[in-house]
Amino acid sequence: MSLLSVSDLSILLKSGEGQPIVDRISFALEPGQRLGLIGESGSGKSLTTLAVTGLLPPGLRATGSVLLDGTQVIGARDRTLDRVRGHAAAVVFQEPSTALDPLMRLGKQIAEPLRRHRGLRGAALRSAVAAALDEVALPTRVAGAYPHEVSGGQRQRAAIAMALACRPKLLIADEPTTALDVTVQAEVLALLDRLAAAHDMALLFVSHDLAVIGKVTDEVLVLSQGRAVRTGPLAEVLSNPGDDYTRSLVASARRLDAALDLTPEVSDDSRGA
Ligand SMILES: Nc1ncnc2c1ncn2[C@@H]1O[C@H](COP(=O)(O)OP(=O)(O)OP(=O)(O)O)[C@@H](O)[C@H]1O
């Protein structure tokens, strides 16, 4: 059975007005598999990932089927969704502050899911927090800092540590590097790549940028105006873009790749960037 199986997913306004925002898209992810969701701003990428975890905003509803680790997410009760979130799937957002409480020290925030879902307490909890920080290449002292006291890159690393605390089978990363400086972007991409491989985690990676997607995954699904217009191996999409929309994405990715050097290597001196 697939880890994630999305069939004919549509997202509509609850009021019933207008066209579907996301229109009958289907895709599946096997354990450990990676997929890049790409498309222009407003094409429905974020709403698709929110529907996968049952987090759609109140005015919207989903139809179709989203089977996540054997649980039907569409129409599920909050208690059921609480169980799948964190353990089956966790999300890293574009803006790390979305996941972080500005008034709580980072160590305490990383400890929270470890305590709640893995039942850790005392010395075992402290050492798990230290290990979680080390895994995302943050120094232990960051545990005592508030989110505003660390850099944007460090905040995103802390948010990644929180997302990984319950060892999710699927990590959803929604434009996780867009808010970061280019050099920090490359480090965070390399980190996600390394962690997904180390934990055999599936990855659903959202970006409007093919050059960024290409650093972490070989498979893509191209969304345009809520519809899946292309799916397949990235290399095939690049060499044979097909429709006009995908062709323009490929052309802009080539321009970007020429302009940026996104070498995804984390060196020892960049720890904690
Ligand atoms: N709560 C909402 N109510 C009504 N429409 C919404 C809501 N949230 C998003 N939309 C609309 O749905 C469409 C898809 O939004 P979505 O955030 O999924 O796009 P996206 O591809 O992730 O874009 P971006 O790259 O800019 O984040 C957009 O036109 C957006 O305006």
Automatic annotation (TrEMBL):
Domain ABC transporter: 4-250
KW Transmembrane (keyword) present: no
Keywords of the record: ATP-binding, Cell membrane, Membrane, Nucleotide-binding, Transport
UniProt cross-references to Pfam families, sorted A to Z: ABC_tran (PF00005)
Principal location class: membrane
Compartmental location: Cell membrane
PROSITE patterns the UniProt entry points to: ABC_TRANSPORTER_1 (PS00211), ABC_TRANSPORTER_2 (PS50893)
Membrane topology of the entry: Peripheral membrane protein
Family recorded in the similarity comment: Belongs to the ABC transporter superfamily.
Protein name: ABC transporter ATP-binding protein
Native source organism of the sequence: Asanoa iriomotensis
